[in-house]
């Protein structure tokens, strides 16, 4: 800022950053109304999509190792929707999100995520040899409630700061108007004081 330059309203206001919300409002309504979610909410064929350029035997090993580490990727065949699945590692064959023991030759997986602004749960199974299976998406009520609460708090903070910004703008504008009025009054007074001197000079 240059010397003697009057600071603007934007320089006087505190800076803040509004983070993009992770979820939309009315998540469940969107899940029930959105065409993609409606299609994926029905059990349909899925397929493991990792390492597609490798031999089948290697892909089978990598798939099982990935599941035990707590991650894999699978696509819904009908829509081509490919998702990265993350869940609890299952070194001993079982975890909350990955179960090799439930059904022989298959692994059952549950993975939560935020997709298109909606909290969902991927639930299904894949065959350990064919690397395909059946799965669907479900609305995650518990995670959705948590994210809704975070969203409301975030929006309230944003609205509060916007109200603060508007109030400071109002005060700044009022101060500017008072300053302009004072300067106008000062110029008027100065001109009035000069008028008799000019009149005297003209008569001489």
Automatic annotation (TrEMBL):
Q: Which GO terms describe its biological process?
A: regulation of hemocyte proliferation; regulation of transcription by RNA polymerase II
Composition bias (Basic and acidic residues) maps to: 181-196
**Is Cytoplasm a UniProt keyword of this protein?**
no
Q: Which GO terms describe its molecular function?
A: sequence-specific DNA binding; transcription coactivator activity
User: Where is region (Disordered) located?
Assistant: 181-204
| Subcellular localization | Nucleus
Where is it mainly found? nucleus
Query: Which cellular components does GO assign to this protein?
Result: core-binding factor complex
Q: Which Pfam families match?
A: CBF_beta (PF02312)
Q: Which UniProt keywords apply?
A: Nucleus
Main function:
Regulates the DNA-binding properties of Runt.
Q: Family, per the entry?
A: Belongs to the CBF-beta family.
Q: What is this protein called?
A: Protein big brother
Tell me the organism.
Answer: Oppiella nova
